[in-house]
Design goal:
Blueprint: H1 3-19, H2 30-37, H3 41-54, E1 57-60, E2 64-67, H4 84-87, E3 118-119, H5 132-143, H6 158-168, E4 177-180, H7 183-194, E5 200-205, H8 209-217, E6 221-228, E7 231-232, H9 234-244, E8 248-251, H10 265-277, E9 281-285, E10 310-315, E11 327-330, H11 334-346, H12 352-362, H13 365-392, E12 397-398, E13 407-411, H14 418-427, E14 430-431, E15 433-434, E16 447-451, H15 458-479
Parallel strand pairs: 3-14, 5-6, 5-8, 8-9, 9-10
Antiparallel strand pairs: 1-2, 4-11, 6-7, 10-11, 12-13, 13-16, 15-16
Helix pairs in contact: 1-3, 5-12, 7-8, 7-11, 9-10, 13-15, 14-15
C-alpha cells in the first residue's frame, strides 16, 4: 500500500472515531496509532495534519491531539473565520474605523446606496461635477508617452513635483515635494513616520474621522483641542502641548472638515509658533484648497514656515475624482528623508501613468476652467441646501455659511440624537453623516454633516431636505 493510500485510510478511520467523541477529548497518541493500525510515523503525522487543516482536531505541542469544537455553519460551503479572533489578538483596532454604512463616513459609503437614496453623505464630487472629459483626455495623452510605463522616481515625477511646489508659493521647491497615492495614504505615512506608537497627537475637535482612524492604526492617542468660528484656539493648543508633551498636531486650517471653518489670519502664525515652541510638527491637511466657493483662499501655513515645523499635505482626489489617487507631501529637513525612506519600504513609487495623467491635467487650461466652474457650482449648492434646511427644519443651527468645502455642519436640537436622525433619514431615502464620528472624545453636542456635492443636482438637495424633515417628524411622533 502506498503512503498516500495509507494516509487516506487512516484519515477515514479517525474521522469516524472523532464523530463519536466530544470536543476536547484527547485522541490516542501517535505511538498508539502506529501500533494499532500498523502504519509508520510519517503516515500518522500526515493524517493528523490533514485533520487539523480540516478543523476536525487541534494539536497542542507537548500535550497531544484533541477533538476540535464543532463548527456551526449556515451552509455546507460557509467559511469559518472565527480562528482569526485569536490570531489577531494584541493588534489593536478602532471599531470606529469601520465604514459599513453611508452614515459612518469617511469619504463615502463603502457600497452602493439603495435605489432612490439621495446622497448627502461622503466627501467626493458627483460624477457630473468631475472633469471627466479632461481626465479622459489627460489619461489618453499620458498613455501615448514613450516612457509612460517606465519606473517612476521614488519621490515622484519632476514636472508633477514642480507643479505642487508652485501651488504652495515662494520658498518651496520641487526637492521639498514627495508625490503620494492620495491623501489618506499620505496621512498614514506621516503618523507612522513622525510619532512613536503610544504617543499623543493633538487634533482639532471635531476633525476628519479618517485622520483619527489613521492615527489610531499607527498606535497614536488622539487628544482633542476645541475649535471655534475662527478655527483652532491657540491658547488651548498651548495648554494641550504642555499637558501632554505631544510632538505632533494635525489640523485643517482651510475649509475644515466637517465645519468649513477657515483659521483666522491672526491665528495662523500663532498656531505655527505654538507648535514650534513645543518642538512639535504641524501636519497641515490642505485637502480643500481647490474647493473654494469663489473667494480668495489664504496662503498655506507651509508657505510662511522656514524652520520645517509644518508638513503640508494636499490631494487631487477631492477637486477631480476619487480615482485620481495623487497627492503630495511638502516637508523640509530630516523628516523628508524619513518619508522618502518609508516610501521605499511601503510601495517604492506611485504608478507612473497616473502621475503622467496628473501632469497632463494640471498643465492644461481645462483644469483652470474646471476649478472656476466647480467654485460656482459648490457655492450655489451650498446656498440651496442651506435655504432648504432653514425652511424645512428651522430649529436646526447651521454653523455659518462655509466659504469653501463640500459640507454643511448642523447642530441638532437637544431632543434628537445624531444616530437616530441618521438612521431615520436613511429609512426615508437620504444618506447623511452622524456627527459623533468627527470627535476624538465625547461630543459636547449633537451634529450632522450634510454634503452638497454628492447629489446629482440641486433639485435633489431640496428634496433631501424635505425627506429629512419627514424623517425627523417620524422620530418625534414615535417618541410621543
Amino acid at each position: 500500500m502506498s503512503d498516500s493510500s495509507s494516509t487516506g485510510a487512516l484519515v477515514a478511520i479517525l474521522r469516524a472515531e472523532i464523530a463519536a467523541l466530544t470536543p476536547g477529548d484527547r485522541l490516542p497518541s501517535s505511538r498508539d496509532l502506529i501500533a494499532r493500525h500498523g502504519v509508520g510515523p510519517v503516515t500518522v503525522s500526515r493524517a493528523i495534519a490533514l485533520l487539523a487543516a480540516e478543523g476536525a482536531v487541534v494539536t497542542r505541542p507537548g500535550s497531544g491531539t484533541y477533538v476540535a469544537a464543532r463548527r456551526t455553519r449556515q451552509g455546507d460551503d460557509a467559511p469559518d473565520t472565527s480562528w482569526q479572533a485569536v490570531a489577531l489578538a494584541g493588534r489593536d483596532h478602532d471599531p470606529g474605523a469601520d465604514h459599513s454604512s453611508a452614515s459612518a463616513e469617511t469619504d463615502g459609503p463603502s457600497g452602493p446606496l439603495p435605489a432612490g437614496t439621495i446622497a448627502l453623505a461622503g466627501g467626493y464630487l458627483h460624477e457630473n461635477l468631475q472633469p471627466t472629459r479632461a481626465l479622459g483626455a489627460a489619461l489618453a495623452r499620458a498613455a501615448r508617452r514613450p516612457d509612460a510605463w517606465h519606473r517612476a522616481p521614488a519621490a515622484g515625477l519632476a514636472p508633477l513635483r514642480a507643479i505642487f511646489a508652485r501651488q504652495v508659493g515662494s520658498g518651496v521647491g520641487p526637492e521639498d515635494v514627495l508625490v503620494t497615492g492620495g491623501g489618506q495614504a499620505a496621512l498614514s505615512m506621516l503618523f507612522r513616520a513622525i510619532a512613536a506608537p503610544g504617543s499623543p497627537v493633538l487634533v482639532e475637535s471635531p476633525t476628519y474621522p479618517g485622520a483619527l482612524a489613521a492615527a489610531r492604526a499607527a498606535g497614536l492617542r488622539p487628544v482633542p483641542v476645541p475649535i471655534d468660528d475662527d478655527g483652532i484656539r491657540p491658547d488651548l493648543l498651548a495648554d494641550a502641548f504642555a499637558m501632554t508633551g505631544a510632538r505632533l498636531l494635525y489640523c485643517q486650517p482651510t475649509f475644515h472638515n466637517p465645519t468649513g471653518t477657515v483659521l483666522a489670519p491672526e491665528r495662523r502664525r500663532q498656531v505655527v509658533d505654538v507648535a514650534r515652541a513645543a518642538g512639535a510638527f504641524l501636519i497641515e491637511d490642505d485637502f480643500a484648497r481647490h474647493l473654494g466657493h469663489g473667494r480668495p483662499v489664504p496662503r498655506p501655513l507651509v508657505a510662511d514656515d522656514r524652520d520645517g515645523t509644518v508638513v503640508h499635505l494636499t490631494s487631487l482626489t477631492k477637486p477631480a475624482s476619487p480615482s485620481l489617487r495623487i497627492g503630495a507631501l511638502i516637508a523640509r529637513g530630516p523628516v523628508m528623508r524619513r518619508l522618502q525612506a518609508m516610501r521605499r519600504v511601503d510601495d517604492f513609487f506611485i504608478a507612473r501613468p497616473l502621475q503622467e495623467a496628473a501632469v497632463e491635467l494640471l498643465s492644461t487650461p481645462a483644469w483652470d476652467r474646471h476649478l472656476r466652474a466647480l467654485a460656482t457650482a459648490l457655492r450655489d449648492r451650498s446656498a440651496i441646501l442651506a435655504d432648504a434646511l432653514a425652511g424645512e427644519l428651522p430649529g436646526w443651527s447651521l454653523a455659518g455659511s462655509p466659504a469653501g468645502g463640500l459640507h454643511l455642519w448642523l447642530r441638532l436640537p437637544p431632543a434628537l440624537t445624531d444616530t437616530a436622525v441618521a438612521d431615520a433619514a436613511g429609512a426615508h431615502g437620504v444618506a447623511v453623516n452622524a456627527g459623533h464620528r468627527y470627535f476624538p472624545a465625547e461630543p459636547p453636542t449633537t451634529h450632522l454633516r450634510l454634503g452638497f456635492a454628492a447629489a446629482a443636482d440641486p433639485a435633489e438637495l431640496v428634496e433631501a431636505a424635505r425627506r429629512l424633515a419627514t424623517a425627523v417628524r417620524f422620530l418625534e411622533s414615535a417618541a410621543d
